[in-house]
Amino acid sequence: MTAALASPAVTGGAKTRINDFSIQVATVNGSGSQTANTVLLRAIFQMGVFVSGKNLFPSNIAGLPTWFTIRASAKGYVARKATNEMLILMNPETAKEDIAKADPGALVIYDEPLQLDKLRADLTCFPVPFQKLVTASCPEPKLHKLVKNMIYVGVAARILGVDMEEAKKAIAKQLKGKAKAVELNQNAALAGYDWAMENLPDQDHIRVVRDNKTQGLIIVDGNEACALGAMFAGVTVVGWYPITPASSLVETFIEYAEEYRKDPKTGKSNVAIVQMEDELASAGVVLAAGWAGARSMTSTAGPGISLMSEFIGLGYYVEAPGVFFNVARTGPSTGLPTRTQQSDIEMCAKASHGDTLHINLYPGNMEECFQFSYDAFDLAERFQTPIFVVTDLDLGMQNWSSKPFTYPDKPFDRGKVLNQQQLAEIKDWGRYKDVDGDGICYRTLPGTPGGKGAYFTRGSGHNDYALYSEKPEDYVSVVNRLRKKYETAKSYVPGPVFRNLGSDKGILAFGSSDPAVVEAQDTLAEQGVKTDYLRLRALPFTAEVDAFVKAKQVVYVVEQNRDGQMANLLREFYPEHATKFKNVLHYDGLAIDAKCIVDQITAFEQK
Amino acid sequence: MSTATPSAPTNRLGMTKQDYVGSKSTLCAGCGHDSITGQIINAAFESSIEGYRVAKYSGIGCSSKTPAYFLNQGWGFNSVHGRMPAIATGASLANRSLINIGVSGDGDSMSIGMGQFVHAVRRNVPMIYIIEDNGVYGLTKGQFSATADKGSHLKSGAVNNLPPIDPCTLAIELGCGFVARSFSGNPKQLNAILKAAFAYEGTSVIDIISPCVTFNNHDASTRSYKHVKDHDFPLHDLGFIQYSEVEDVEIAAGETEIVTFPDGSKVAIKAIHEGYDPTDRFSASKAIHESMHKGEFLTGLLYINPQNAPLPEVLNLVDEPLVSLPESAVKPGPEVLAAIMETLK
């Protein structure tokens, strides 16, 4: 019997940060550290503590530095925190730099031979003989590199007061019951824990105390949530091309489709998934499948949207449905493909040549990633147009805790599609006739029998009957109707959500900025600056956005790009209020934190 | 159904040829593309194709306008330059009961759309892929395309210094199971090829030399009507017998080779060019290369392998068109979501 199951003797002083700290783990990518970090995160989560994880990884397969941040927060703040209370330094390449950047008072776990304890006097150092421990706990030398990281999980568990039973459970869950791997890793974690119990002193800086905040919650990433939304939305054609950070959306979908989208009798697939030769072809597949009556989608990032843009303009103009996920990353060009940004806002709002305005959805949490993905297919078919679901790497690839998703009971909205019987009863059908006055016309699908309803879809000028036309009045009529359709969409897209503290100062943000904004709003209020917060969830801007903009003296537009792209759109659509919008920006590729928002708004307020 | 006079001949569906026409062509008078359009109409009529099941796709260019000129009963999608194959891929997967006809040009398929051509062929998308090949960009007024022969002249006198890309040998290389070349001035051959293509399940690539009467029909062009006529070497006499007629048609024994399609239709190939075997991929490829070297156009069914599985089969899709599946078939129930949520806890 080891000490592993005993309650660790962590002291709790008056200044102890209970369930309120960040840990940063520095490793080398390709070393299996992602598994170890997820185990540590899960173990804390299983103890009922709100926790969030951010993986800061390189665009590389193996050998480059990677950092993982775990934040625990009793208040439920899940944004990245600018300061870290604990560092776990496993990468000799970056250890000295990491130490130099450490926040005063931080605890530092590191590999003993790195000898970091002489570098800073204001840190608490915990050197650990990792190699010795791994050799003792793991009989197979070729696995040493992989299980070495699990040792720091045990060491950290001891220092933080994490129950090792929870860590063991988390290992079993993470390795999905692969018995040998589970045993090997549990042994490694226990070896770290036992060693730490015997050799490391107590600390009263930070600790985990069992709570009940995560009862019934799930841990999921946004790409998985979007994939699930699409699966329940009955997507039947997927054309895609790999790109970070969007690939795992389709890859996760493929895994689920293997299990849940097969015909039970024949075992044949009821969804066609094709990895295309590029994003141009992916967009073509999506729009043509939508045109033919399928629910279709692709998943990409900014460079992919650039390549798809010619097709997206065609889709907008010929009115073909399709769902385009943009899991945004730091651009332009390859930029920082493994870092996050909200820098495709203007591009997705207007993707393509000519006058184009698209419906965009901005999920801000995991439940919305799921629900909006489901809704996007309804919107695409209702409005017969490309729909963008815009997330980013932070939402898409990081671990988030969430309430379990609610089953979408609402039946599919397949939009205005005429079948053979309906066509037979209509005397004068025209593909682009605005019969209902909402800008949305009635379409037919290829293969409809009965001899009526066939039409020729063309990117060239066309009239109400889809016939070729270069007449000025025909062109204007079509593009004006498309604009009317955009207006109609205002009553279909999800409206904003508010967090109002009672103020004539507004904050407007969207997507992954939400947790940092909420935290910043509280901090600002403590400092005497109250704000009302509107979280935007879609384009076009709806009536609630109109009212908010009109009512506020100032609107701080928080977003993760250099140019204030959403603020630019707001200035365009609300020219009479253009001077109210102030840019609060974060664009270094890291997830946005509350401090940068507080600092910028405070600076504006002090002007 | 028929709109023509009662005396007009009808096909197996009771349709007349008039039921297969499209809008009036707006191409130049005498354009080879219009002859091809005429043969598509004839072949569809004679093969008793159900017009409402036809989906017509194109990119951009003179050739890409033509889907408006045939089969008005079918749906058309004139897309963007070089991207017709992606459109055909998406729609054919969405609804596998569609009969897909893509019309492209040499610029659309061999320049801007080369990547899409290659990958559609590689995937064996179920479609007839027609390339109306005149070696020149017509709609932008006479620039060379990638199929123009080295040394060929533009009307302006400009000489093409680059070697041509041949869609047929490329398609054979990519594993295409139906590769044909024809000439807009040889309606009989083209008719038989198109009818066979309608019966073929995967991608049938048909490169049709189609002289541009406005920009590429002068004496120094290797794509002029006269030049092609003089250098057209038909490989064989082709006969196509649809599955429905197989029992009624007697095929003469002897030198005629018969290729049978999965639906029972047959292609009868009577060789003119001795020693050419259209079922042998490597020797076919060699013979085409040799003839091109001599400045000839070998025409006919260059390569045929009717057993290639088309994309929907490769993807193991359900038999019913995906667009016809009810919500209950594609939306898993609440118990599935609940089970997934449990695994994420």
UniProtKB/TrEMBL annotation, chain A:
Record keywords: Oxidoreductase, Pyruvate
Record InterPro entries: 2-oxoacid/accept_OxRdtase_asu (IPR022367), Pyruvate:ferred/Flavod_OxRd (IPR050722), Pyrv/ketoisovalerate_OxRed_cat (IPR019752), Pyrv_Fd/Flavodoxin_OxRdtase_N (IPR002880), Pyrv_flavodox_OxRed_cen (IPR002869), THDP-binding (IPR029061), Transketo_C/PFOR_II (IPR009014)
Residue ranges occupied by any Pyruvate flavodoxin/ferredoxin oxidoreductase pyrimidine binding domain in the UniProt entry: 229-392
Domain Pyruvate/ketoisovalerate oxidoreductase catalytic: 30-194
Domain of life: Bacteria
Keyword Oxidoreductase among UniProt keywords: yes
Gene3D superfamilies in the record: 3.40.50.920, 3.40.50.970, Pyruvate-ferredoxin oxidoreductase, PFOR, domain III
SUPFAM superfamilies found in the cross-reference section: Pyruvate-ferredoxin oxidoreductase, PFOR, domain III, Thiamin diphosphate-binding fold (THDP-binding), TK C-terminal domain-like
Chloroplast listed as a keyword: no
The name this protein goes by in its record: Pyruvate ferredoxin oxidoreductase
TrEMBL record, chain B:
Identification of the protein by name: 2-oxoglutarate ferredoxin oxidoreductase subunit beta
Residue ranges of domain Thiamine pyrophosphate enzyme TPP-binding in the record: 60-208
Biological source species: Geothrix rubra
Gene3D superfamilies: 3.40.50.970
PANTHER family registered for this protein in UniProt: 2-OXOGLUTARATE OXIDOREDUCTASE SUBUNIT KORB-RELATED, BLR6744 PROTEIN
The keyword Nucleotide-binding belongs to this UniProt entry's keyword annotation: no
SUPFAM superfamilies (alphabetical): Thiamin diphosphate-binding fold (THDP-binding) (SSF52518)
Record-linked CDD domains: TPP_OGFOR
Top-level taxon in the UniProt lineage: Bacteria
Keywords noted in UniProt: Oxidoreductase
